[in-house]
Amino acid sequence: MAIYSSELTLRDARAKYFALNNFGDDGGYDDNWVKVEYGWLRFYFPNTRARVEVVRYHDLHQILTEYSTSMPGETEISAWEIATGCTANYAAWILNLLGFGFGLLINRRGVHRAFLRGRYSSNLYAYAFDDQLLSSKVGEMRCLLRLD
């Protein structure tokens, strides 16, 4: 059963995604630092403008694909985004290659499946991040990106 109903707009699904994952009302886009945890490992890195630009799409991709925000889920969405093509967005390539590489260590099978899925679908990076995109229905976008 899907977490994000096909009838939700991406805006409403994103609000639900933020709430379900305790990301705050703005998803942490305005935070200065990003904290990553995996087991006892914790590290922080700057929440740069380039990262925020990428994560706005990344969050929508997680909604549409239903990959979780757990570390294995993050490695899967990284593999999926690489397979769909990050266009000329260098920040997306860097962040996704890091996730993909880590996934090869902790989630090889999941990364492989997500990469194969991505080869047959597309992503939102070429779309303007605007009100029109956020007003789109989850189901319509899943169909458009060949995720249904």
Please provide a written account of the structure.
With 148 residues, the chain is mainly alpha-helical. The protein has one domain. It contains seven helices and two strands; from the N terminus they run H-E-E-H-H-H-H-H-H. The protein has helices at residues 10-20, 49-65, 71-84, 90-106, 108-119, 131-134, 138-144; strands at residues 33-38, 41-46. The chain has a two-stranded antiparallel sheet with strand order 1-2. A hairpin with a 2-residue loop joins strand 1 and strand 2 (41-46). Helix 3 (71-84) packs parallel to helix 5 (108-119). The longest helix is centred in the middle third of the chain and has 17 residues, at 49-65. The mean pLDDT is 95.
How many individual helices?
Answer: 7
- What string, H for helix and E for strand, traces the elements in order? HEEHHHHHH
- Going by helix content, strand content and strand pairing, the class is mainly alpha
Give the overall pLDDT as a whole number: 95
| Largest beta-sheet details | 2 strands, antiparallel
Distance N to C terminus: 13 Å
Low-pLDDT runs: none
Cα radius of gyration in angstroms: 14 Å
Judging from the principal axes of the Cα atoms, what is the shape?
globular
- How many β-strands, per DSSP? 2
Helix content: 55-70%
Q: Give the percentage of residues in beta strands.
A: 5-15%
The number of distinct structural domains comes to: 1
List the helices and strands and how they pair.
Layout: H1 10-20, E1 33-38, E2 41-46, H2 49-65, H3 71-84, H4 90-106, H5 108-119, H6 131-134, H7 138-144
Antiparallel strand pairs: 1-2
